[in-house]
Amino acid sequence: xxxxxxxxxxxxxxxxxxxxxxxxxxxxxxxxxxxxxxxxxxxxxxxxxxxxxxxxxxxxxxxxxxxxxxxxxxxxxxxxxxxxxxxxxxxxxxxxxxxxxxxxxxxxxxxxxxxxxxxxxxxxxxxxxxxxxxxxxxxxxxxxxxxxxxxxxxxxxxxxxxxxxxxxxxxxxxxxxxxxxxxxxxxxxxxxxxxxxxxxxxxxxxxxxxxxxxxxxxxxxxxxxxxxxxxxxxxxxxxxxxxxxxxxxxxxxxxxxxxxxxxxxxxxxxxxxxxxxxxxxxxxxxxxxxxxxxxxxxxxxxxxxxxxxxxxxxxxxxxxxxxxxxxxxxxxxxxxxxxxxxxxxxxxxxxxxxxxxxxxxxxxxxxxxxxxxxxxxxxxxxxxxxxxxxxxxxxxxxxxxxxxxxxxxxxxxxxxxxxxxxxxxxxxxxxxxxxxxxxxxxxxxxxxxxxxxxxxxxxxxxxxxxxxxxxxxxxxxxxxxxxxxxxxxxxxxxxxxxxxxxxxxxxxxxxxxxxxxxxxxxxxxxxxxxxxxxxxxxxxxxxxxxxxxxxxxxxxxxxxxxxxxxxxxxxxxxxxxxxxxxxxxxxxxxxxxxxx
Length: 596
Ligand SMILES: Nc1ncnc2c1ncn2[C@@H]1O[C@H](COP(=O)(O)OP(=O)(O)OP(=O)(O)O)[C@@H](O)[C@H]1O
Ligand SMILES: [Mg+2]
Hints:
There is one protein chain. This protein is α/β, with parallel strands linked by helices. Among the domains are: 179-292; 355-595, P-loop containing nucleotide triphosphate hydrolases (Rossmann fold, 3-Layer(aba) Sandwich), CATH 3.40.50. It has helices at residues 2-11, 16-47, 56-65, 71-76, 80-123, 127-132, 135-177, 179-185, 189-226, 228-233, 237-289, 295-337, 396-403, 426-432, 447-452, 460-469, 473-478, 496-509, 526-537, 552-555, 575-581, 584-595; strands at 355-362, 373-380, 385-390, 411-416, 419-420, 433-436, 514-518, 544-549, 560-565, 568-573. The protein has a six-stranded mixed sheet with strand order 6-7-8-3-9-10, with helices on both faces. A four-stranded antiparallel sheet has the order 2-1-4-5, with helices on one face. The longest helix is centred in the middle third of the chain and has 53 residues, at 237-289. It starts with a helix and ends with a helix. The structure holds adenosine-5'-triphosphate (ATP) and magnesium ion (MG). Residues 396-397, 438, 518-519 line the site of magnesium ion (MG).
């Protein structure tokens, strides 16, 4: 309950008054509905010359319509009643339109506020958060859970208020007109309510199963499409079709079970409703016969009883939906309460590019007792090119994560220009240390926009220079639309090597003082590799370059080579020194040379 109120408050930001007035309009809508129906009673009673039997409420209505002149005026001017009904219906229509407008305004705003809030909150989560959260769950919270809460606020709460207003009002008026008729006619209601309340749970239960099965089917299609290359390459089509067919069957089964039960539920609960109507008619005919009520009362009683029972049946459905709204609100609140990453506090300094690791150790959260990096110490001088070489899983990319402050060391310190990195704001660190990630990602934008991402002030000629350094200029010229060629999911598919080079151009364009290339040339041929390394060497001499690689060839020309093994430093030195050392580096060199 607390979560729901928390999320509702958040969602209503800026439209609190609109939301309130929606309920005010709803109240007037109910009032106009009841008043219009009540006028038909007065009309019937006037036609059968029974207005003299009128009591409090009718007296008041007669007084209003005859403008204070009394029932004789109505007998003389019968046409005023249909006119009053038309005017009243017209007012009802106006209030209904106003209420709907207010409701839709709130609905759109709640959606926007919550989704915007969640998305921007997610963007500000630390990297470690995404390591433990499942993307599917996050997407569900941002879309479906928001929708459930929005529907609850816009439909179900409104429906409840409507039911409450109309039931109270109709019940009070009916009691005033004839309490006997009211109590007898509505005697079946409690049974209907409990019947609905218990059965609807099973309806929901079956619905949830069908829904889960459908979600699994969607996941299956999505996974299949994403892996279609593997499916084709391994001749897995028939297997995949069969698997999908099983899922479809499961869904069909559950869907049928849900549909059958829900139609049984709705039809059977309708029996209560029709029985109530019948009871009302029979009993009021009896009372008319005994002259205890007028024909007009029969008409209004029948109308009001119908106005009470239908929404009451839906209340049971609504109450059973409440659980879903609670669960969704819980998830939304939990996400909102996750602490945002603070990228702003700390020192803002121009980093020159001196780097020092002092006894740095690091373990990932879910592998606390296994260090990905252990006791790492080394230093890099501004402008140096340093290679970090090691076998797969030796901790090279982890080093990059620490240097960009996506994680901070578990033990030890990293210094940038002599300042402890944790004292420098993350924004500043990430502005000055720019990596080419091992698995480069391109957005669904043009090549140019993908490159310009790292430097919004870059001119076209800067972008061109960066692509030349990344040996990408000729490739781009080959595309019909050149720099404007769309790439990413919705554009041209680039090869692995082309993607890597776009990412290199992006990093080069940033003009950062430290650039890290994580296995960035693994997918290009050795000639291109050489070209790019040459251009990078000619890059601004003040730039510190860290080249992460498992190839001796890419590391060879570096000023310093740091050899990592199982998260620890095995050796440090230049190519010549390490060859002389006869250690791991020399062994790798031999193996790789033999291969070539
Ligand atoms: N997010 C993570 N959570 C837990 N363990 C991780 C995570 N990322 C990496 N590891 C583990 O940390 C160790 C070092 O991984 P890292 O990615 O740094 O290796 P690498 O040297 O970059 O390897 P490669 O050359 O294959 O890219 C590995 O044992 C890996 O399984
Ligand atoms: Mg790696």
